[in-house]
Amino acid sequence: MTPELVEAYGVRLRLFRLDDAADTAAGCADPVTQRGISGMPYPYTEETARWWITEGAPAAWAAGGAAYAIADPATDRLLGGIGLSQVVPARGQAEIGYWVAPWARGRGVATAATRALAEQAFAAGTARLELLTNDENTASQRVALAAGFRHEGVRRAANPSRGGGRHDLIAWVRLADDPPGPTARLLPDLPGGRLTDGVVTLRRIAPGDADVMFRLHTLPEVVANQAPPVPPTRAAIDRRCRLAETAWLTGSLARLLMLDAATGEPAGSCGLSYSDPAAGEASVGYALLPAWRGRGYASRAVRLLAVWAFGLPGITRLVAGTLPDNTASHRVLEKVGFRREGLLLGRLPGLNGGRIDDLVFGLLAADLRAGH
């Protein structure tokens, strides 16, 4: 059983009181809170808050969980709420969830409260804590990582969406014997949010990049050099851009937009993903808009990406797969220092059940060539 009062990491976890009703209503009616917690009542009024304080929160405690107000230790003003639910005693498992009021965001309140409550839950005998986030809620995903939770996978269509339908949830888990502190990320943020050599700049793909990404990845020559050679739909590109930060945080894929450093105009895209994490191997890919081809932008982008990748703990080898007749791409890779390693017959899916050969290039840090 967790205690009724916890103070740690600069926050106070205490029971809700009736004089929290106005702040609870304001925090839970906020659009960001409503968007992040689809099951939050709407509209959320002071009457709803009073019901939560007098009935909902006590019911959570009675069910073996917890329902805390997050408060400022100096003023005791409500900053948010956090609790434990979905308790499965036989498995020593519970789910942790929280919300933070608009006036308290950006101060690390959610991370501090999550760390404090997790420690109390483990001290009370919980062995496994789950934290589930909407697939686009990257702020909450960053809280999970900062509080020591690890990405475990996707729960497909696990939650009803507001207004109908269902959506995925990202599962983050922390065990009682996991090491303290933040979870080390496979793909850290770029230093300062970008990489640049003064000519080319790389930054993470964002939702607003959907137009240029759709234009680039539906070009016939770009489609022809992917496997299978099928153009993506606009819906797929929109989703790819919306979930780019999530893919980065979960360590699955770093998608970057390639920009002209002087003008900021989009020139193309590139990306990096772990092909074999245990072996320290990652793969790279890239594509350029027509106006920027033949100017060395692709090799500059790949070089920037390679320097960053070799600086990450664990990445010791980069690979790139190309179609055997894509000589322009071969020249890009060789200019950076990649070496041809072999032809993998029929490795990739083609059209109508056909197969495509894959010419593989590899790069070690010692072979990386300086830019010029």
TrEMBL record:
Presence of the UniProt keyword Cytoplasm in the record: no
Source species of the chain: Micromonospora rhizosphaerae
Claim: Mitochondrion is one of the keywords in the record: no
SUPFAM superfamilies attached to this UniProt entry: Acyl-CoA N-acyltransferases (Nat) (SSF55729)
Residues annotated as domain N-acetyltransferase: 11-176, 200-366
GO cellular-component term (any): cytoplasm
Entry-linked Pfam families: Acetyltransf_3
Entry-linked InterPro entries: Acyl_CoA_acyltransferase, GNAT_dom, Ribosomal_N-acetyltransferase
Molecular function GO labels: protein N-terminal-serine acetyltransferase activity; protein-N-terminal-alanine acetyltransferase activity
Superkingdom field: Bacteria
Transmembrane segments: none
Keywords (A to Z) from UniProt: Transferase
Gene3D superfamilies: 3.40.630.30
Listed name of the protein: Protein N-acetyltransferase, RimJ/RimL family
